[in-house]
Specification:
Archaeosine Trna-guanine Transglycosylase, Chain: A, domain 4, LON domain-like fold, 5 helices, globular
């Protein structure tokens, strides 16, 4: 399966929302094709390079994204809301003449659904409070507070930690391991809050 790859400085998890402002011609063309054909594109954390300009080097593990809302305020400029769907492994990639990266990917099977273990009740409550505070419209609906993968992914997205740490969570693809790591990260943040 070949899809366009969008290397970004952010990590997209399955079920996550990703607002994007598209202005580079290569991504404007990609956007038009994805809207026209109802196709996904791949979001992959940048390993080397930058979001704009010369094509960046994407991470091997990424997440497919589907455009769920879009507007074109002016020709070639798009405001998008995309949603993460499925993890993938990038098998090979090539760069088109316009600078768009096209990757041959292999979809990664999602883990079996797991309910929220009792020991992570505080994480479940934390996410419930955050969704209320931020606004449920910024999350996939309906919310799945009893789904370990959904809760772990949403908390991982919201944590103020470097994208490389979020990428590690994405690559493990294990909901219970993710919840344990999120708990550790929250403990670290409480002990050593990020500088304002």
């Amino acid at each position: 399966m070949e899809i366009p790859i969008f290397p970004l400085g952010t990590v997209l998890f399955p079920g996550g929302r990703l607002p994007l402002r598209i202005f580079e011609p290569r991504y404007a063309e990609m956007t038009k094709a994805c809207i026209r054909d109802n196709q996904v594109f791949g979001v992959s954390l940048i390993r080397a390079g930058y979001e704009a300009g010369t094509p960046a080097v994407p991470s091997e593990i990424g997440c497919t994204a589907r455009i769920i809302e879009w507007e074109e305020p002016s020709s070639g400029l798009f405001n998008l809301n995309a949603q993460g769907e499925t993890l993938f492994r990038l098998k090979s990639r090539r760069t088109q003449a316009d600078g768009l990266i096209v990757g041959e990917i292999e979809l990664i099977e999602p883990p079996d659904p797991i309910g929220m273990p009792e020991r992570y009740e505080k994480l479940q409550q934390l996410l419930t409070d955050l969704v209320k505070e931020i606004g449920p419209e910024h999350f996939t609906r309906p919310p799945r507070f009893n789904d370990a993968a959904w809760v772990g992914s949403r908390l991982a997205e919201l944590l103020p930690v470097p994208p490389e740490r979020k990428q590690k969570l994405l690559e493990e693809n294990d909901p219970l391991w993710m919840l344990a790591e999120v708990e550790n990260m929250l403990r670290d943040l409480r002990e050593d809050p990020p500088e304002k």
